[in-house]
Design goal:
- By secondary structure, the chain is mainly α.
- It contains ten helices and two strands; from the N terminus they run αββααααααααα.
- The chain has a two-stranded antiparallel ribbon.
- β1 and β2 form a beta hairpin.
- α2 packs parallel to α7 and α4 crosses α5.
- It is elongated, with a radius of gyration of 25 Å.
């Protein structure tokens, strides 16, 4: 089994590790943007129903928009790779001597010399697929991603909705209890901090950085977004309401 196949089957918790980055960044964006809506609504002193409506509308619209953008980005990357690959096949067919010389130059730069260099060139150019793959990696520095566009989009949307709904939970499930309005926002802050900490730790695994630093960076980013949204909401409420 090839290394790429082994890698694609590796999992972290219940996720395919190839798609962890989509889950992480979709989750971070979802939590921060939804929490910013909640903070802004609180700053403007809007009603609980308004907070929930704005939050859910933002959650669905932004989640869908982000997943669509992810889909087209991944698809465009794969299409670009395929287009360049077809160009390489054409050049091998019509500019064979030039392409052979390019292979020779690539491996000469790696330190191959004399008969060994010529043997390497001969082996690579004997198989068109190997030849093209070599040109893609060594000349164009392009490697085709194994990620399917619809899977990256799906994971982004899933994480955006799941993690992004956390800041709204205290408002959605407040019911008819005697919960003080200020407590709802406090609970939202706590739940959001927990969600961002979990996603921040996953981000550290993806980027191979210190977990504490990853959590701290994510919390600071979320806190800053919430502060700005709350401040803007408070200012606008005083100006127009």
């Amino acid at each position: 089994m090839q290394e790429s196949q082994l890698h694609s089957r590796q999992k972290l918790l219940f996720f395919n590790k190839d798609y962890i980055s989509e889950f992480v960044y979709g989750g971070i964006d979802g939590a921060i943007t939804t929490f910013a809506v909640v903070a802004g609504s609180e700053g403007a002193n809007l009603g609980i129903q308004v907070v929930v409506i704005l939050g859910l509308a933002n959650l669905i619209a932004d989640g869908f928009s982000m997943s669509v953008g992810n889909f087209f980005s991944t698809k465009a990357e794969r299409d670009t790779f395929d287009r360049h690959k077809q160009v390489e096949y054409w050049e091998i067919e019509h500019l064979r001597d030039k392409e052979i010389q390019e292979i020779r130059e690539i491996y000469a730069a790696k330190g191959f010399k004399g008969d060994l260099l010529e043997q390497v060139v001969e082996v690579i150019t004997a198989d068109k697929d190997v030849w093209v793959d070599t040109m893609m990696k060594e000349e164009l520095e392009m490697v085709k991603s194994d990620k399917a566009p619809y899977k990256t989009a799906g994971m982004t949307f899933f994480s955006f909705i799941i993690v992004g709904s956390v800041p709204l939970l205290s408002y959605v499930f407040t019911g008819t209890g005697s919960v003080i309005r200020e407590d709802l926002f406090l609970y939202s802050c706590i739940l959001t901090a927990v969600a961002l900490s979990i996603v921040g730790s996953l981000k550290s695994i993806v980027t191979e950085k210190n977990v504490i630093i990853g959590i701290f960076e994510t919390l600071v980013l979320g806190g800053l977004a919430a502060f700005l949204a709350y401040f803007v909401g408070d200012v606008l409420e005083k100006m127009f309401l």
